[in-house]
Amino acid sequence: MTENLPRTARPLRVLAAMSGGVDSAVAAARAVEAGHDVTGVHLALSANPQSFRTGARGCCTIEDSRDARRAADVIGIPFYCWDLAERFREDVVEDFVAEYEAGRTPNPCLRCNEKIKFAALLDKALALGFDAVCTGHYATIVEKEDGTREMHRASDMAKDQSYVLGVLDEKQLAHALFPLGDTVTTKDEIRAEAERRGLAVAKKPDSHDICFIADGDTQGFLAKRLGKAEGDIVDGATGEKVGTHDGAYGFTIGQRKGLRIGHPAPDGKPRYVLDISPVNNTVTVGPVEALDVTALTAIRPRWCGSTPAPAGTYTYTAQLRAHGGETEVFAEVVDGELHVRFTEPVRGVAPGQAIVLYDGTRVVGSATIATTTRATAAV
Ligand SMILES: Nc1ncnc2c1ncn2[C@@H]1O[C@H](COP(=O)(O)OP(=O)(O)OP(=O)(O)O)[C@@H](O)[C@H]1O
């Protein structure tokens, strides 16, 4: 159950990040069971937790912090609540809005792992004398003979979260514990384990995808932040105006639903978002084949764990969005950027998303998709 924790003779001082959900409660309990000296912490990440009183789970409602505290009491560990709302707003929420405004599609969970849980929280934990931060993420840490660490996909692929952790560098991974990651347990089994341990969160519903948009309405959230900005939807092949929109920022490459297109395309086939131009406030649409991408460049590469930046061209598999499949790629670092060619064209690659490279199950690294090369010149 606890092979994922470091093979160290001495118990570690562990800070368990407790969201108030079932996964992190079980993770904290497992860390205690492994013999570590565990303290729980809930992060208040919203400046306005009352706004989530709708029944939908947000990242840090009052109920979440109470649930985390109760779980800590049952496990028998000290518990604190830390206010990181300002850091979260600056590093995650404002970045999210700015990225959409620039026509890109960000991944806030990945950003939160990089900037909040394994930066702001980890730094504070280390400064206070803790050895590690423990979370309920599903990913496996493998400690090698030489003491270096690798991150691998979780044993249960259905729950694997290595994609949103692919940004962790050597230091961050050296101080991370994921007690759930290498056990092949279904969510039902985790809930049953929570029940056995007397944790009241055993039946609590799973958290929402984007924790700071409690109702799940990303477009509504962006519209409130960025205002209405009516613009044109144009056909990529003809350049003809085919509809209007209320703000180019509300779209994602590959999107089909929610397009207000006045008349059907001449071939009668559905139209997809091919390009978003914030400068002209224009959304370009076209047939699904025009989404095929043969190559991309990605910026700010980060090499996971102690993996050195690859020199030369390597064959890896890549994941291009949070719940996406894997695809084979040739990857190379050129002038600090990641250049990737796909062995087969892939569809709907959105700038702003992360590309995470894998060597088998091992996470090699990640980078932010900046530009793509289309198979056809429809845009
Ligand atoms: N507000 C928070 N305070 C402390 N830790 C948090 C908070 N939000 C998330 N975490 C940590 O990050 C991990 C992954 O977050 P995610 O939002 O993916 O939760 P999850 O998979 O639904 O897990 P859980 O069931 O614990 O909520 C959690 O398991 C927890 O350790």
UniProtKB/TrEMBL annotation:
Subcellular location: Cytoplasm
Domain annotation tRNA-specific 2-thiouridylase MnmA-like C-terminal: ranges: 294-369
Site (Interaction with tRNA): H137, Q353
GO process annotations (BP): tRNA wobble position uridine thiolation
The keyword NAD appears for this protein: no
Enzyme Commission number(s) from the entry: 2.8.1.13
GO CC, one annotated term: cytoplasm
Region (Interaction with tRNA): 159-161
CDD domains: MnmA_TRMU-like (cd01998)
Biological function: Catalyzes the 2-thiolation of uridine at the wobble position (U34) of tRNA, leading to the formation of s(2)U34.
NCBIfam families, alphabetized: PRK00143.1 (NF001138), trmU (TIGR00420)
Protein name (Swiss-Prot/TrEMBL): tRNA-specific 2-thiouridylase MnmA
Organism encoding this protein: Streptomyces katrae
